[in-house]
Amino acid sequence: MTRIVSFSESGVDLGALHCAMLAAFSDYVVPLQPDADTFKAALSSRGFDPAASFVAVDDGEVIGFWNVATRNTQRYLIGSGTRIGHRGRGLASRLGMAAIRAAENAGSESFWLEVIKGNESAERLYRKLGFEVTRKLDCYRLDHPSPDPSTCERSDFGTVANAIQTNSTWKPTWQNATETISGSPLTSFLHEKGGAIVGAGGLVHQIAASDPSALADLLAAAATVGSLTLVNVDSADNALCSLVQKLGAHRFIVQSEMRLSLPNVS
């Protein structure tokens, strides 16, 4: 008999959850097979909440999951999946409804997620559960850009985060939010014209500049490993999207950010 239960009450550990994730994502539209340490680190940085997350357990094995994070009055779906042999039984819907009920009972105001373009079955489920698209997001890979980075200087994360907040016209998604990345080893740069960028190992978490010409220099300064990956760029940011495409970036993923507004049940 399959049980739908919060992770905190399931009796299974993160190792079992990791195995379920690898199995569920083995045929995913984007290859995603992290090792155990990377998986646990990603959960931790995003604010994994065991009481808010739900698993489907059958004969002691995790066969489906909704990994959920909590931050203040918001909840976020870190990732969800069902093992291939157990699909078509409505488990994803049951897991989602359980996670949403738990969020409502906890007084959460909203539930957020992203879904990759091409994952039609997941998007249909999220819409059925009441989620609505709030914006489109682009992900890019960019070879080492050529502009002169000498107009940038390294700075501490707090100073750069404030500069980005001042200059940005959109909020980063959950995985790139200041609260998510603040505990990670980061490289941060300020531009003499007022822009800033923060990232790690070639991954750009946040970038913004009041002068669009500064964006290219900031990208060059951050490309310490020879290439850059920009994840979840708001597609409405025409200046940044146009620039990275002009520099030869490849857009490898398009996502939809979705939100479910939750009723006050207190």
Structure explained in plain terms:
The chain is of the alpha+beta class and 266 residues long. The chain folds into 2 domains: 129 residues, Gcn5-related N-acetyltransferase (GNAT) (Aminopeptidase, 3-Layer(aba) Sandwich); 117 residues, Aminopeptidase, CATH 3.40.630.30. Helices cover 30% and strands 33% of the residues. The chain starts with a strand and ends in a 5-residue tail after the last strand. The mean pLDDT is 93.
Q: How many angstroms does the end-to-end distance come to?
A: 33 Å
CATH class of the largest domain: Alpha Beta
Annotated CATH homologous superfamily of the largest domain: Gcn5-related N-acetyltransferase (GNAT)
Work out the count of structural domains: 2
By CATH, the topology of the largest domain is Aminopeptidase
Uncertain segments are none
Biggest sheet overview: 12 strands, mixed
Give me the oligomer status: single chain
What class would the helix/strand composition place it in? alpha+beta
Helix content: 25-40%
Order of helices and strands: EHHEEEHEHEEHHEEEHEHE
Output mean pLDDT: 93
Number of helices: 8
Tell me how many strands there are. 12
Strand order of the largest sheet: 1-2-3-4-5-12-6-11-10-9-8-7
User: What shape does the CA trace take?
Assistant: elongated
The proportion of strand residues reads: 25-35%
Radius of gyration: 19 Å
Q: In the CATH classification, which architecture of the largest domain applies? A: 3-Layer(aba) Sandwich
